[in-house]
Amino acid sequence: NAGVTQTPKFQVLKTGQSMTLQCAQDMNHEYMSWYRQDPGMGLRLIHYSVGAGITDQGEVPNGYNVSRSTTEDFPLRLLSAAPSQTSVYFCASRPDSGANPYEQYFGPGTRLTVT
Amino acid sequence: AQSVTQLGSHVSVSEGALVLLRCNYSSSVPPYLFWYVQYPNQGLQLLLKYTSAATLVKGINGFEAEFKKSETSFHLTKPSAHMSDAAEYFCAVSNTGKLIFGQGTTLQVKP
Question: Do residues B22 and B7 lie in contact, with contact meaning Cβ atoms separated by under 8 Å?
Fold first, then answer.
């Protein structure tokens, strides 16, 4: 049981380049989400999904796209990277019901630098 | 709307001293409350959670937090700080399924 995995761990992009951050979970969780972490701002929600085929915007969605074709995977796409997207990105998942609703499990993060 | 405020972006204590990290929340309905810890260059680890059972919640590594509805607070405490407690701590609230985080508090432990 690997939990929530993210790839890559580190990435450097040039302004205007595109890339996809990968996230996968093996806990059969319906809910998955992406956050970005910036100094002094905590973690802010980018996009989330309540199940395969269903996604919605969070607090800071601009410049990011997501899709959810399977329960396990929730990739985050940067269409045209900007220096303001330099951040640490965390993927998380949680069950929809059971003994620990709302308790989210986090991946190890992807550190992205846009030059 | 939900929100979380952590008072103090940096807290410094001596080893063996009491740790107190403050968290106040805003929620229109009874919330679920969480404390997460992040060690340098690592992901987030759940310390403890409040889910409307006991108001005093015990977590890992000797930490505990008390839910006080009248004060809308969920402060994190530990009686005696260890050097290994140096990390960033995040308070978070949820009543809709989405997790809303505070700004974080960096705990420094001095020998």
Answer: yes
pLDDT tens-digit series, residues A50-87: 999 999 999 999 999 999 999 999 999 999 999 999 99
- Considering only alpha carbons, which residue of chain A is nearest residue B104? A42
Contact criterion met (CB < 8 Å) for B99 and A40 = no
Averages of pLDDT over runs of 10 residues in chain B (111 residues) are: 90 97 88 92 90 87 94 96 96 85 96 95
Q: Assess B94–A contact: CB distance below 8 Å, yes or no.
A: yes
Contact state of A106 with B43 under an 8 Å Cβ cutoff: yes
